Amino acid sequence: MSTIDSGESATLTATDTVLSVENLAVDFPSGDGVVHAVRGVSYELRPGEVLGIVGESGSGKSVTSMAVMGLLPKTAGISGSVKFRGRELLGLTDKEMTRVRGKKIAMIFQDPMTSLNPVYKIGYQLAEAVLAHHDISKEQARKRAVELLEMVNIPQPDKRVDQFPHEFSGGMRQRVVIAIAMANDPDVIIADEPTTALDVTVQAQVLESLRAAQRETGAAMVLITHDLGVVAGQADRVLVMYAGKPVEIGSVEDIYYNPRMPYTLGLLGSLPRLDKRDQSRLTPIQGSPPSLVNLPPGCPFTPRCPLAQEVCQTTEPELEQVAAGGFGLRGHMSACHFKELVAQRDPADLFAATAQDADLPDVFGKNDRVLERDQEPTGRQVAEDDFGSDEEDR
Amino acid sequence: MSTPTDIPSIPGAGGPAAERGEPILAVRHLVKEFPIRSRGLIPRTVGAVHAVSDVSFDLYQGETLGLVGESGCGKSTTARAVLHLQKATSGQVLFEGTDLTTLAKEKMRLLRRDLQLVFQDPYASLNPRITVNEIIAEPLKIHGLYGKNGQQTVNDLMQRVGLNPEHGNRFPHEFSGGQRQRIGIARALALRPKVLVLDEPVSALDVSIQAGVINLLEDLQEELGLSYLFVAHDLSVVRHIADRVAVMYLGKIVEVGPADELFERPLHPYTQVLISAIPIPDPRRERERERILVQGDVPSPANPPSGCRFRTRCPKFLTLDEGQKQRCVNEEPPLIGRGLGDAHPAACHYAEIQQVL
Fold first, then answer.
1. Given CB atoms, is B280 within the 8 Å cutoff of chain A?
2. Residue A72 needs a FRET pair 20 to 30 A away by CA distance; which of A318, B5, B261, B352 works?
3. Quick check: A271 contacting B, CB < 8 Å?
4. Structural domain that includes position B290
């Protein structure tokens, strides 16, 4: 495999990378000031590869993919570069982008109830996707529609093709959406929380269909989700986002077994496990993600980070290589000043198994433990009288 | 109050009654149906949505019972019927021996002190127009317990749920989702209840926030001796927090058991399907796991299948011979002990342990 550093993208050959995103940034104007929703995202996608993008609500994972698809409103300020097989997509006119959308890069949205048009038959909506990019007859398009429904395991596809979306269940609708995304054999599929709205047994069916369809077409996939379980089973590589920036990227094993960013470690420690008998206390990450308006300098994770030092408040760390094997965006990278300290640690080593809600101070950087001590005296006596013992492990 | 011996025992109550004492909350043959009315000038009842069909369970002092299932299985309706927020069609809800379903309104109001609810959506369940102090004080005022020390009680409650009491004069919109859920919990605790019904209390929260709220619920239970009826669809959370778990499908409990045993030795095919469908955040294990896939979606509760309600999607059903299948179609399987004792009953004629983790 050849080395591709973000700096030498001009030398990219089409066979290496289908999609390369470089330093993508998205700003939105708002009443309170500019929202820096995405602040420099870079990733590369090879044919057939599945990249999982994880992060909490508001981390910018969806906005990133909307920018790639050219689906953001005109008010959004977009900078950086998105190249599909070496061709720049940012700055293309709507008309030019329409030829890429659906044909080269397809998208699957979260909510199957709203992404299908309720007044058209399923077959029409599938054929519409095919006809948008192929000059074929309506009969051929219909035949293709039936084929597509079969590919995503819809029973009786020749009958189902003439039904309306309301006659389909949620899981089947999402499979229709997958079929539409597959209609033109795209090279890249972007799936934005494709199973979040579904029940688990239906999620399993849909993930199976998605996987089958992806294998069939050999497409690469960007899978955006907040479910770390789904990513573990589906992705080859994982990108962890926090406050609009990637904070760690690596193979799925790197991320789950050897995370090098305290945030990733904290996320894993917050997860209750279905497969473990030993139910020791969970270790939450205290506080909440920062507002993306007027983000202070330094690492945005600082107020929640157990390893935070002076330097974290002043300098935002860049993504850097943490381990040999794979280079640049192909390797394991983390954005943390103290990534060595995270190596081989258990979440419980760094994060407290607290039940408190760290009330983040208004002044950035003030340690939350200090604050907890400050608030100690209020109402303590009452506590004793009212509820008996009030000893909490702090 | 009636004597405790009036409560008929059921399988799945968790060990001999002598060990656990009497349940604090006993639900017997609870049924909740919503009528389907025809349109027109004079609407007539033409059918019913069988949301909850003959559900029985016990909740003991200091215990967490997880009630799990997919959307539409009736778990939230059960919770609401237990609290008498929606009147049950039939059945009994015995709280410390008193049947709530037949209680007069005024007596029920008094009992509400002991039975409180925490809602799913922390954005919709707090009045945006009043401050947090007022939100938490409201139940105290309604029950005439605010008094002179009211504000101090509110401060203490805020501190107890991990919030800064100085922020009591802020409005709900100034708090994050996790903090709002803590406010909802403080409000539920204000009257010092014995039983908390938690309806998907952490589903709306991001994982890093969710963990803190789960820890809080565990601490509160230990300190205050609360009993939790924990309704959730996330089985990982339920395994973590619950002592016993009841699995619901289409308005019925299909399996009950101690949490670890239910996850490690599930008896009912639906429980097995459900557990096997949940992705585990461990790439190597996740790739090795075999998934039991079911076909189709949950049938409509307005017209549930005869016999066993899961048979239309059951992977086990497909492996049975014709005679055995007939039994599933004609005979509803009772929820009784099936090889793992009365503490772990399952409602399947052909129940068999299958490890799926």
1. yes
2. A318
3. yes
4. 4-37+46-114+193-346
